UniProtKB/TrEMBL annotation, chain A:
<feature type="transmembrane region" description="Helical">
    <location>
        <begin position="146"/>
        <end position="165"/>
    </location>
</feature>
<feature type="transmembrane region" description="Helical">
    <location>
        <begin position="326"/>
        <end position="345"/>
    </location>
</feature>
<feature type="transmembrane region" description="Helical">
    <location>
        <begin position="12"/>
        <end position="38"/>
    </location>
</feature>
<feature type="transmembrane region" description="Helical">
    <location>
        <begin position="114"/>
        <end position="134"/>
    </location>
</feature>
<feature type="transmembrane region" description="Helical">
    <location>
        <begin position="242"/>
        <end position="264"/>
    </location>
</feature>
<dbReference type="InterPro" id="IPR001851">
    <property type="entry name" value="ABC_transp_permease"/>
</dbReference>
<feature type="transmembrane region" description="Helical">
    <location>
        <begin position="58"/>
        <end position="81"/>
    </location>
</feature>
TrEMBL record, chain B:
<dbReference type="InterPro" id="IPR052910">
    <property type="entry name" value="ABC-Purine-Binding"/>
</dbReference>
<protein>
    <submittedName>
        <fullName>BMP family ABC transporter substrate-binding protein</fullName>
    </submittedName>
</protein>
<keyword id="KW-0732">Signal</keyword>
<dbReference type="InterPro" id="IPR003760">
    <property type="entry name" value="PnrA-like"/>
</dbReference>
<feature type="signal peptide">
    <location>
        <begin position="1"/>
        <end position="23"/>
    </location>
</feature>
<dbReference type="Pfam" id="PF02608">
    <property type="entry name" value="Bmp"/>
</dbReference>
<feature type="domain" description="ABC transporter substrate-binding protein PnrA-like">
    <location>
        <begin position="25"/>
        <end position="310"/>
    </location>
</feature>
TrEMBL record, chain C:
<feature type="transmembrane region" description="Helical">
    <location>
        <begin position="60"/>
        <end position="82"/>
    </location>
</feature>
<feature type="transmembrane region" description="Helical">
    <location>
        <begin position="213"/>
        <end position="232"/>
    </location>
</feature>
<keyword id="KW-0472">Membrane</keyword>
<feature type="transmembrane region" description="Helical">
    <location>
        <begin position="188"/>
        <end position="207"/>
    </location>
</feature>
<feature type="transmembrane region" description="Helical">
    <location>
        <begin position="239"/>
        <end position="259"/>
    </location>
</feature>
<dbReference type="Pfam" id="PF02653">
    <property type="entry name" value="BPD_transp_2"/>
</dbReference>
<feature type="transmembrane region" description="Helical">
    <location>
        <begin position="141"/>
        <end position="158"/>
    </location>
</feature>
Length: 364, 354, 306
């Protein structure tokens, strides 16, 4: 037996809508089998994964908190990836954004004005963009591969943050523990509905960024430029677009959004700098970008779903004692099924039964 | 099973949550790592198992593993608070602010945060005086080492680690005044490969005793391979080096968890700042092995003296690395200075980032 | 002298897993496929190798099983990205997430057990040479395989017909298909080779480097391996140089610390990464040479037209 794909004339509108649900269905079946094999009640497990986090208001707030940075970063990355620029260092830009945004509340903490917060956010965006400008500069000036340079800069950023919170920015009241001064109230991102949960302005930034990016990609010349240059640099040149300028635009844009995500996280959730401010948002966001098919609206949905699996993993640990490793395996399965089912949008899948088999049909 | 009064009140408080407290009291744990990490988190999890065994089916002890410090921690703790936990142990320094934040919202739930310095009405801070064990190790190293130089594999320059380095060195200098240590920071709590590399680098530079403030057994394996001695960390690492380990500092949180849970059930739980050590059984030493009898004798005597309060590792005269005097003869360091320790004593071959 | 040998031995141990995993990925990328799941394959290889060595007591069987596990795991990537033409970047990342979870699950019962080590095999006569003897001719089997992989891959890519075909596919899968070369089949084989190499790299971690199993023990080495391939501009000998350079800087910074230079350790830890960027910039300034070696259809999916 072998599998053959046949390209559809256009993309299938039916499967565009249907494929996420097929993927979910397959994940549920595979998950049920796995949970049963592990002696866990599959219904309970699936309930705590997908439903329980949605049944309470505070948990919805938490969903927004977890999803906001993923969406912000991924929306920026989608522009980058569409223009064929491979920025995989968003994690580093997130961290540097968090650091530069914190300059004000840490070094000039005496200054209390309503201006503090907007300036912080802008400085965070500038920091993220500036850090992303390094791989862009190296790429345009020295032809340096951006996948590598942006990735290496992640480690550098992590160590820089580590150094600054243990050294120059160490909290003078913190018994020399590795953390910065705590932010004053002016420097803290306000919560949306403090009565019901912790969600802050971060999710609003994510919504705005999603809509603006969607608008840009769809209706503005700049969006067109991104797609053209991404599909063929040659065609872009004929249209009079500059590939080098696009490299900078894409990196600065995604860097700024990653930086905004960074400072929002620091200011909204952590309220001080710590040696580690991201549980890998910058990398997870790459998956979110692709799960959302590089479309801002799709990314918004994908960010929420991925955030849900994190919350669900915890819920399952508590309510049925599912080890967190199994939660991660389950998450990996979900990703695989979603990716696989998206194939249906552009292709018809045929199973052919012939005598000679493809060397490797089904994977492990 | 009879419900305690506390359980009923707690259940009333959290009845808006999905699952109300059942008959058993819930004591919950938030871990920063995996419960089988062979070090820090595993030690806490063994404590949790001892707690569970002690109270049997009177309690339930759910836990969350691999919780990242930051917003994830706050969510995890809040989830526990809402799901009917009455006592929540958060076992990493980075959980301090999230614990305090959640504690504010749930005044009837009790919280215990490990290795921090802040407390509130319903948040206790608890820690262990690991440095007591390091002093004993230092003395052993001072006796055993031929080169007079020990290698110290360190994680992050925080007071906890700096305190350990100083205490180890003071112990060593108490038997060999010229003793030196070389410090290598690996910037990680747990990276077997890096720890092994650091261990090899130190041995190549002539140290003949290794000690570590990181969690994997890799340095012990390297020491065994190179035929020198080493000290275990967080748990007994004798299996990784049967002919290598001199002793190990063992974190034994079990007795503390049992004590505090009992207090909570009795209604005598109060917020406090606990810094227990050898005397409270929160810190124990693995058997003294692979050393001559006289050294063993000395180690056991020191252990006994520290346990009964006769001896304090940080007793003057002690000079700081920069040559200034820290403790006068006979003066004992106060806990405040120890808690925020940010300087080396004379004899450390390293500079602290300031 | 003894010190130099000891230090260099440490460097070879640190460089071997990077070299192996990068060499596998190099072949994969030369065929036009970008598999970002190296980290996941390494960690699965490490846990399976350790588990099998513990169960059977034979580390060689362990290493073999580790390699096979890496291969099996890579087929999952292959099935999705080649047969179902999913996006390679996303699929690779998902593979890493799954690998980290799966390895934790498999290894749960093996944590903390002292492992069986792959012992060095001394090559008669040669191993008694000064300096190179202990360094090159008295090592474990995985080290020899890693060096062999450099020679083998160089020969294969540039001296054999099928190597030429593989490079042709990486440069232009459309033209290669038109010439009658089986694109998908070749790519499957390349991906499997990448899996075997990554699995062996994992086995080196859990059987040689630090003979034990701990969760996430790959600790980012898969990412470094990926970076090395680009760093080496897809040339096998440069991968060898890159892996050893990276290993040398990593070990060197630890020695610098032990000597007590007083430089912040974070700065020293960042050195290997900064060095990689700088060397890459220097290499890639020659635009013509870089373009010549870069597989032009890297990361693009291929579906044969009929």
């Amino acid at each position: 037996m072998r599998i053959e794909l046949e390209r559809r004339p256009g993309h299938s509108a039916l499967f565009s809508v249907l494929s996420p649900f097929i993927a979910l269905g397959l994940t549920v079946v595979a998950g049920a089998i796995m949970f049963t094999a592990l002696d866990k009640n599959p219904i309970d497990a699936l309930y705590s994964f997908f439903i329980e986090p949605l049944t309470e208001v505070w948990s919805l707030h938490e969903l927004a908190i977890k999803a906001a940075p993923l969406i912000l970063i991924a929306v920026g990355l989608s522009v980058c990836f569409r223009s064929n620029n491979w920025n995989i260092g968003a994690e580093g830009q997130f961290i540097i954004g968090g650091v530069t945004g914190s300059i004000l509340p840490i070094m000039v903490h005496q200054w209390d004005s309503w201006l503090v917060l907007p300036v912080m956010l802008i400085m965070g965006m500038i920091g993220g963009a500036a850090y992303a400008a390094i791989p862009a500069l190296l790429k345009t000036r020295f032809n340096t591969n951006e996948i590598l340079s942006s990735l290496m800069l992640v480690y550098v950023a992590q160590l820089f943050l580590d150094w600054i919170v243990r050294g120059p920015w160490r909290n003078p009241e913190g018994f020399n523990f590795p953390e910065s001064r705590e932010f004053d109230v002016e420097a803290i991102l306000p919560e949306l509905l403090p009565a019901s949960g912790r969600a802050d302005l971060g999710i609003i930034f994510a919504v705005v960024a999603t809509l603006l990016t969607w608008f840009m990609m769809r209706y503005m010349l700049r969006g067109f430029e991104v797609s053209v240059l991404g599909q063929s640099a040659r065609a872009g040149r004929f249209a009079g677009f500059s590939a080098n300028k696009m490299v900078f635009f894409a990196f600065l844009f995604s860097g700024a959004l990653a930086g905004l995500a960074g400072i929002s996280e620091v200011s909204g959730s952590i309220e001080q700098l710590q040696p580690v401010i991201s549980p890998g948002y910058g990398f997870t966001a790459i998956i979110v970008a692709f799960l959302g098919r590089l479309n801002p609206l799709g990314i918004f949905a994908a960010g929420l779903i991925l955030a849900l699996t994190y919350l669900g993993g915890e819920a399952a640990q508590i309510s049925i004692g599912l080890p967190d490793k199994i939660a991660r395996v389950f998450q990996g399965l979900l990703l695989f099924f979603v990716l696989a089912c998206d194939t249906l949008i552009h292709y018809r899948v045929r199973l052919k039964f012939v005598a000679h088999a493809e060397p490797a049909g089904e994977g492990a | 099973m009879k419900k305690t009064l506390l359980a009923i009140t707690a259940a009333a408080v959290v009845s808006l949550g999905a699952t109300a407290a059942q008959a058993a009291t819930k004591v919950c744990f938030v871990y920063v790592g995996s419960k089988t990490d062979g070090g820090w988190t595993q030690a806490h999890d063994i404590g949790r198992q001892e707690l569970q065994a002690h109270f049997g089916d009177k309690i339930e002890t759910p836990y969350l593993e691999n919780v990242a410090e930051g917003p994830d921690a706050e969510r995890a703790i809040e989830r526990f608070a809402r799901s009917g936990c009455e006592l929540i142990f958060t076992t990493s320094f980075g959980f301090m602010e999230p614990t305090l934040d959640v504690a504010k919202k749930f005044p009837d739930v009790k919280f215990e945060h490990a290795t921090g310095y802040k407390t509130s009405d319903n948040v206790t801070s608890y820690n262990s005086r690991f440095y007591q064990g390091r002093y004993i190790q230092g003395q052993i190293a001072g006796k055993i080492s031929k080169t007079g130089v020990a290698g110290y594999i360190a994680s992050f320059p925080i007071p906890e680690v700096v305190r350990g380095i100083n205490s180890f060195l003071l112990g060593a200098q108490s038997v060999n005044p010229d003793f030196k240590i070389k410090v290598v920071w690996v910037n990680s709590w747990f990276d077997a490969g890096k720890e092994a590399d650091a261990a090899k680098a130190l041995v190549d530079q002539g140290v003949d005793i290794l000690t570590q403030h990181t969690d994997s057994t890799a340095p012990m394996q390297v020491a065994a391979e190179r035929g020198i001695n080493a000290f275990g960390q967080a748990s007994d690492m004798i299996e990784a080096g049967p002919n290598t380990q001199l002793t190990a500092i063992i974190d034994s949180w079990g007795p503390y968890y049992i004590k505090r849970t009992q207090a909570m059930m009795d209604g005598t739980w109060k917020s406090q700042s606990t810094w227990d050590g050898l005397i409270d059984g929160i810190l124990t030493m693995a058997p003294y092995t692979n050393m001559p009898d006289d050294v063993k004798q000395m180690a056991m005597e020191t252990e006994a003296k520290i346990t009964n309060g006769e001896m304090h590792p940080f007793t003057g005269p002690v000079t700081k690395q920069d040559g200034s005097e820290w403790l006068k003869g006979g003066e004992v360091a106060d806990d405040g200075t120890l808690l925020g320790m940010n300087f080396y004593v004379m004899g450390v071959d390293d500079k602290l980032p300031q | 002298m003894e010190l130099i040998v000891a230090v260099l031995l440490t460097v070879t141990t640190a460089a071997t897993p990077l070299l192996l995993a990068a060499m596998g990925e190099l072949v994969v990328e030369r065929s036009g496929v970008l598999n970002l799941g190296v980290e996941g394959m390494i960690v699965v290889g490490a846990v399976v190798a350790f588990a099998m060595a513990q169960i059977s007591g034979n580390p060689y069987l362990g290493a073999l099983c580790g390699a096979l596990a890496g291969c099996a795991f890579s087929l999952l990537f292959g099935f999705l990205s080649l047969t179902l033409v999913t996006n390679q970047v996303a699929t690779g990342l998902a593979l890493t997430i799954l690998g980290l979870g799966l390895s934790g699950m498999i290894g749960e019962n093996f944590v903390g057990q002292p492992g069986v080590q792959l012992e060095p095999i001394a090559i008669p006569l040669l191993s008694s040479l000064p300096l190179v003897g202990p360094l090159v001719f008295n090592q474990d089997i995985i080290f020899y395989l890693s060096i062999l992989s450099v020679v083998g891959v160089s020969w294969f890519l540039f001296r054999t017909r099928i190597g030429l075909q593989l490079r042709a596919i990486g440069d232009s899968h459309g033209s290669a298909h038109a010439l009658g070369i089986s694109v998908i089949k070749t790519r499957y084989l390349a991906v499997m080779f990448g899996g075997v190499c990554a699995g062996l790299a994992g086995a080196q971690l859990s059987l040689v480097y630090t003979p034990q199993w701990v969760e996430n023990m790959s600790a980012g080495r898969g990412w470094i391996a990926l970076a090395l391939v680009v760093f080496a501009s897809w040339r096998p000998l440069r991968v060898l140089a890159g892996a050893y350079l990276f290993g040398a800087v990593t070990i060197g910074q630890l020695h610098a610390q032990a000597l007590g230079f007083g430089i912040p350790s974070q700065f020293l830890s960042a050195l290997p990464y900064l060095a990689t960027i700088i060397v890459l910039v220097l290499i890639s300034r020659n635009r013509r040479l870089t373009l010549m070696n870069t597989p032009a259809s890297l990361g693009q999916s291929f579906v044969p037209d009929r």
